[in-house]
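Worked example 2:
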Amino acid sequence: MNYDSNSVAFIVGTAKALIGGKKQIVLEKAPKEAYADKTLVPLSAIVQVFGAKVKYDSDSKQITIRYGKNVGVLTADNPLISINGNIIRQIDYMNPIVDDGVVMVPVRPVVELILGKYVSYSSGAVYISNDPFVQIGQGTAHVLGRVLE
């Protein structure tokens, strides 16, 4: 697989990620499948790779993500997401959560709607990049797992 230099690849259940196909990082918490192939990821590790700024207010449980001209706001245990002050989507089947002090968010709405990146998923492997045409296959999880050992 050819990795975009501005990409993140990881396997659900593994607390490591591959950045740009070269650099490994350790995540605060392993991404996990929450419901029906919906994946929760540790927010700070994923968005900061792309240069986004994250702020979490523990009193209100509000999560603010700033990236380019976009300001996305989510609230832990709440299914709504807003971008630039407009509620644009109800997050299907899961809410952002705080798990042992780590903010975990649904990967697809945050990555696609706020960061403007693309997500490809297959058999527990997740690939986030700038390229809308990249589709990972079933063997990707196996190969990525070996790289992240």
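The radius of gyration is 14 Å. The helical segments are 43-49, 107-114, 140-147.
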